Amino acid sequence: MRALDGSETANLLEVRGLTKIFGTLKACDAIDLTIAKGEIHALLGENGAGKSTLVKMLFGSLEPHSGEISWNGQPVRIASPHAAKKLGIGMVFQHFSLFEALTAAENIALSLNEDTPISTIAAKAKALSYSYGLPLDPYSLVGDLSVGERQRIEIIRCLLQTPELIILDEPTSVLTPQEADKLFETLERLRSEGKSILYISHRLEEVKRMCDRATVLRHGKVVGHCDPRKETAASLARMMVGNEVKPVVRPPSEGIEKAASLLEVRGLSRKPATPFSIPLRDIKLDVRAGEVIGIAGVAGNGQGEFFEAVSGEALQDDGATVRIRGKDAGRLSISGRRLLGAAFVPEERLGHGAAPRMRLSENLLLSRHTTDRKAFLGPAGLVQSGAVKAASQRIVEEMDVRKSAVDPEAAALSGGNLQKFIIGRELDRQPAVMVVNQPTWGVDAGAAAHIRQALIELARSGSAVLVISQDLDELFEISDAIAVMHNGELSKPLPRAEATFEKIGLLMGGAEPGHVEPALEVA
Amino acid sequence: MFESILITIATAATPLLIASIGELVVERSGVLNLGVEGMMVMGAVTGFGVALATGSPWLGVLAAVLVGALFSLLFGFLTLTLVTNQVATGLALTLLGLGLSGMIGESFVGLPGVKMSYLYIPYLTDIPYVGKLLFGQDPLFYVSILLTAGVAWFLFRSRAGLTLRSIGDNHTSAHALGINVIGIRYLAVMFGGACAGLAGAYLSLVYTPQWIENMTAGRGWIALALVVFASWRPWRVLAGAYLFGAVSIGQLHAQALGIGVPSQLLSSLPYLATIVVLVLISRNRRLTMVNTPASLGRPFVPDR
C-alpha cells in the first residue's frame, strides 16, 4: 500500500464511524474508509449494502448522522454537492442525474459553475470524450440517448471538473470490452497523475485487475478491507454476499437444431423514431425452442428500437416481419403478442417495466390482466384481488424477492429485487417466447445469478429466450449463441463454442464487413 | 384608423403578455401557480389606490409590483416550504385575491383614477401612420416588449436561465448537482407575482383608469392558457397575446358592425386555441420533451 511507505500519510480522504439512519434502518453503520492519494479503491457490496448511501454522504447529497470525514488531513463537513466539488470530489452517478430536455453540453455546463460559453464547453467535452474513447455528440438531446450514452456524459462531465477524487458508480456496465479497456487506461493515467478513484463495481474481475485496495460492505457495515489482487473472484463474492454465490449452470442444449423456431424475425426494418435514434436495417433472427440467444452491442446501436419492434411497442407495416409461434405478429399490440405466448421485460424497471407508485400486486395485474383474464378477473370483469395477491406472493417466493412490507410500492424495492419481481412476473406465466432487455443491469451478484439461472431453466424447459444485454460476461454465461447489434444491423449468431470476447468485441465495434461506420466515429 | 386599431390591440395584449411572461418563468422552474388572476387583481387595486393617494401612476405601478410579489410569496411559502398541493393553493390564491381586492377597493368604486400618460417624442411620435404605434404608446407597452426579450435571453442564453430550466426539467437531478432548487423556485415565483401585479396595474392605470370589482375579468386565466399555447416560449407568448388581443378587439368591432357572432364564442377562443395547441404538441414526443417542464406541478422534498 502506497500510504505506508513514507513518514507522511498521504491519505486524501479518511472516514471514521460514518453513520446514516433512515427511520429504523441503519443504511450505513460506523463506516471506516481511507483513500490514499493516487490509488484506485474499490467499494464492493450487494445492492442495499449501503454503498450508494455512503457515496452520497461523501458527495454531500446526504447528511450523515454521526462520524467524521477528513480531507487531506483536515476535518471537513461536506454540506452539499457544491461543497464536495469545491473540495475536489467528482461523481459519476449510477442513477443518472441528467436533464432529458437539455443537450449533452448544457448538462455538462450545469455542473461546472463557471461562465464558460456553452460552445467552448461543447468543444472541450467533445475533445475529451474522443481522447478517452467515449465518443459523444455534445449537441444531442439527452432524452434521445440510450443508457450507455448517458453514462458517457456523466463520465465526461465529472472529468471536466478535474477532481482530486473521482467516485465512479458501476462505470463499465454499459461499455464494450474495448471501451472498458480504454476507460481503465484512462483511470490508470489519472492514478499516475496522483488522482484517487473510488470505484464501485459488481464486476469482480475488473476490480481484481485494476484496484489497489478494496473495502467490502454488507448490510451497512464494513466486513473487510483487502487487496483484491490477492483474492479470487469467488472469495470476493463470498465476502460481499456472506455466503457462496451459486455459479450459473448451463446444461448442454440437445437437439436444438431440429427444434421449431418460436420467434422468427424476417427482414425487420424501421425508420428512426426520433431524429437521433437508430434505424433498424433488415434484421433476420430465429430463436428456437430450448435455446437462449444473446444480443450484444454497445448502447444505442438499435437494441432499444429492436426490442420495441419485437415487443409490439412499435408496430410494423408488414405483419410477417415478426412471427411468434408460427403466427404473424408484426401488426399485433403488446397484449396480442402476449396472448400468443410471448413475454417481454423492458430495459427500464421503473416507469416502463413497473409503475413506480403502484403496489407489486397492482403491477402484476396491470401486465397480466389480458393474458390471465380467467385467473385474475371474475364475473363482469371485477378484479379478484385475492387471486392477484396470491400470484404476487408466489412470484415473490419463487424469485426470492426481498421487501420491507407485505405488498410494497414498486419504487420502494431496490433495483435488484424489483428486477427479480418483474422477471418472475413473466416467468410465472411459463411463456413460450421470452424477450428480455438488460436483465441484470445494476443488479447485485446474488440476484443476477438467480435471474440468469431462471432464464436458462426457462429455455431448457422448451421456451425460446432472447436476451439483449450490454454485459458480455452475462451473455457468455447464459447464451447458446450470441449475435451482435451494430448501427441497426444484426450479425449472424455465433455459437457459444466459437464466440470469444475478442470476436464479439470486434463485432460490437463494427468490424464486420458491410457495416457502415457511424458518423460519430469518423469525426 | 388602421393605426388606432393596432394601438387598441396592443393595449389589450399588453396585460396578457406581462402576466404570461411572469407565469412562463414560474412554470419553467417547475412550479404551477394558478393564482395569476388573484395576484393580478391585487396589483390592479393596489396600483389604483396608491396612484390615487399620491397622484403618481409610477408609484402605483411600483406598489402593484411589490404587492404582486408579496402575494406570490405567500403561495411560495405554502407550496415550496410547506409542500402543499400547487393546484389547490393556486386556486385559493385567486379566490383570496378576488375577495381581498373587492374589500380593499370598496371605497374606490366610481372614483376617477389617475391615467398614465402616453409617450411623446417630438417629431418621432408625429410620423404619420406608424409614429403613434411605435413612439406614442404608454410606457408599460415598451416594458412588456423589453420584458419578453429579457426573459427570452435569460432563459435560453444565460447560465442562470439554464439552471432554472434544469430545475423545471428534473428537480431531483438538479438537487443532486447541488443546485438550490427551492431558493431558485422562490425567486421565480416572486418574479411571476411581480409581473402579475404589473399586469394588474396596467388594467387600472392604463387600460381603464378606474377601479371595478373583478376588473381582471378572467385575464389571469387567459394568461395561464397563453403559456401553454406558446409551449413555454417567450416570443410565442408575445404572438399569442397579440393574437388574443386582436380577437378581443375584433369581437368589439364585429359587434359594432352588427356581425352576428356570439361574443361568448369569441371570448372562449383563447381556451379552444390552447386545447388545439396541446393536442398538436403532444403528438410530437420530442417537442413535448424539449418544451414542457417535466417536473411542472410536482412537489419537491429534498432528502437529507
Automatic annotation (TrEMBL), chain A:
Coiled coil: none annotated. GO terms for molecular function: ATP binding; ATP hydrolysis activity. GO terms for cellular component: plasma membrane. Residues 13-244, 263-512 form the ABC transporter domain. InterPro entries: AAA+_ATPase, ABC_carbohydrate_import_ATPase, ABC_transporter-like_ATP-bd, ABC_transporter-like_CS, P-loop_NTPase. It is a peripheral membrane protein. It is found in: Cell membrane. Pfam families: ABC_tran (PF00005). Keywords: ATP-binding, Cell membrane, Membrane, Nucleotide-binding, Repeat, Sugar transport, Translocase, Transport. Belongs to the ABC transporter superfamily. This is Simple sugar transport system ATP-binding protein. It comes from Neomesorhizobium albiziae.
UniProtKB/TrEMBL annotation, chain B:
GO terms for cellular component: plasma membrane. The chain crosses the membrane at residues 6-26, 31-52, 58-83, 90-111, 139-156, 177-203, 215-232, 239-259, 265-281. One of its GO terms (molecular function) is transmembrane transporter activity. Keywords: Cell membrane, Membrane, Transmembrane, Transmembrane helix. It is a multi-pass membrane protein. Its main location: membrane. It is found in: Cell membrane. This is Nucleoside ABC transporter membrane protein. It comes from Neomesorhizobium albiziae.
